[in-house]
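Chapter review: from sequence to fold.
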Amino acid sequence: MIGDSNKILNLKKKEKGYVTYGGDGSAKTLRRGTVSLGNNEAKAKNTLLVENLKHNLLNFGQTCDQVHILIFDSQKCEIKKKDSIKLVIVAPRKNAIGVK
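The token string follows.
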């Protein structure tokens, strides 16, 4: 889920709906599209544009369903292509021990 429409490639209309997230919050879904995760190879398909969302949220299950492997350690998350184990992107964990 993302709150900035400028980050979504090929923005498509979507039937009206709502998402619910932690703390019993909910928000209206506006559109759907694909978001680049930092390079041309790493993309999150079927990403929802959510009204007034202030943080971008990555659904781990959906990312794995799109033929990726997620590996977490104390400092970072790596996303790899499942079929080739090719490293697609590395994202540092904020507030992790040893990460500034």
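Two observations follow directly from the output. The first strand starts at residue 8 and ends at 21. Helices lie at 60-65.
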